[in-house]
Amino acid sequence: MDKFVIEGPNSLKGEVTVSGSKNASLPMMAAAILTTEDVILHNVPDLKDIATMCKLLVELGCRCKREDKTIVINCSNLDSNKAPYELVKTMRASILVLGPLMARLHNAEVSLPGGCAIGVRPVNFHIDGLRALSADVKIENGYIVSTAKKLKGGSIYFDIPSVTGTENLMMAATLADGETVMKNAAKEPEVVDLAKMLIMMGAKIDGIGDSIIRIDGVDKLSGVEYTVMNDRIEAGTLMVAALATSSEVTIKGMPIYAMDAIVDKFKEIGGKIEIIDKDVAVVGGKTIKPTIISTAVYPGFPTDMQAQFMAVLSLADGSSIIKETIFENRFMHAAELNRLGANIVISGNEAVVNGVDRFVGATVMATDLRASASLVIAGLAAEGKTEVLRIYHLDRGYEKLEEKLSNLGAVIRREKE
Ligand code: EPZ
């Protein structure tokens, strides 16, 4: 296993370019199942989770080839309907093949993804949604076994606006007979990006970015060539790293249009941002002020930025409160930040973050993707050496982060644990 070794404190300078979005790329790759023609995706980040999705598609009989930042997928020879546990257990987002398989083959066997560090991660909305589209869905030996003569349009309501739930069922509905209405659907920019691509493939979708989405099923979808949006969470992570190290950096390729809540909170805690162009900004700051954060579905403050803000707010001049309303166990980074000298007290789904003067380097352990980013941010600011273990969590969602940070002047290197 790899670890990061960071010598702090660092001050960052120069410019960095944001990679394509992991959470937009994954559903788009699964959408290739919906057509027998080539799906060509540009700006796809080179990440572990993307490689896993490619492997799963090949397992299903598709071709999936990466050429630099472009991935070409062709599912004309789809010859399996089974997403095996061995693959699904390494990446929960594998469930995104369920909807497309049901649309294309009318049957699917997808392993239940199981939970992960941040929560139980149930998939009841995915299952209930397929049933609303006239699928017969059973759970057998840890697998979701779904069959249908043909999917029929129906009415789907999400108790919680699930991101991959919305994506899965939107893809399923594109080839169903008749109209599907999804209520309380997720509005995340990655859901919108997927919908835009599906429409280019010939899907009939209304209300994208809204909480009521209507999909009129069509007989078939064509291939597509599409450029994936950039990663708003990576951009937010880099912004917070600049503020935590009292630096000023230029971020290029920032999807500012999708970052209102992140930018707003960043400015509220003392961050400075000067927007140079539609996707270029100079960000940083010298003082860090306390605040109150409550994570929410889009366009609210994203849960995927909670851990990173907890790191920088640990250096604020005062106490902050962070409420995690999306996942039931997404504070594991708090104990690790406290090992670096933070003073965070957890009570249920609330964290009180009492600002301290500085982080002091120590060995800490990553527990999940965004927690690892939070520990790297703290390590950059910490005095002395910080080792972040189990960095494979970070490799799932950040492309060459140590390279990007080194190019900004950070002293960070990857070593074998
Ligand atoms: C997506 O996960 C993202 N993953 C997550 O990013 C992100 O944290 C999450 O959305 C919230 O924004 C991808 O897009 C691949 P949800 P997803 O379904 O779709 C409950 C990262 O860091 N729920 O919106 O799995 C669920 O337990 C990852 O890149 C049900 O109860 O999240 C959670 O409490 C981590 N039943 C809430 O809804 C269901 O059927 C939101 O989950 C589905 C979800």
Can you give a write-up of this model?
- Helix content is 30%, strand content 27%.
- It has 417 residues and is α/β, with parallel strands linked by helices.
- It has 2 domains: 2-19 and 230-416, Alpha-beta prism (UDP-n-acetylglucosamine1-carboxyvinyl-transferase, Chain); 22-227, UDP-n-acetylglucosamine1-carboxyvinyl-transferase, Chain, CATH 3.65.10.
- The protein has a 4-stranded mixed β-sheet with strand order 22-23-1-24. A 4-stranded mixed β-sheet has the order 2-15-17-16.
- Helix 1 (22-30) runs parallel beside helix 2 (48-59), helix 1 (22-30) packs parallel to helix 7 and helix 10 runs parallel beside helix 12.
- The termini are close together.
- The mean pLDDT is 97.
- The structure holds ligand EPZ.
- The site of ligand EPZ has 22 residues, from helix 1, helix 5, helix 6 and helix 12.
Summarize the structure.
The protein is of the alpha/beta class.
Can you tell me the overall shape? elongated
Secondary structure class reads alpha/beta
Number of domains: 2
CATH superfamily grouping of the largest domain: Enolpyruvate transferase domain
CATH class of the largest domain: Alpha Beta
Kindly estimate the percentage of residues that lie in beta strands according to DSSP.
25-35%
Q: Distance between termini?
A: 5 Å
CATH-defined architecture of the largest domain: Alpha-beta prism
**Record field, number of beta strands:** 24
Low-pLDDT stretches:
none
| Share of residues in helices | 25-40%
Quick one: biggest sheet?
4 strands, mixed
CATH topology title of the largest domain: UDP-n-acetylglucosamine1-carboxyvinyl-transferase, Chain
Strand line-up of the largest beta sheet? 22-23-1-24
Q: Mean pLDDT score, rounded?
A: 97
Rg over CA atoms, rounded to whole Å, is: 21 Å
Give the ligands present: ligand EPZ
Per DSSP, the total helix count is 14
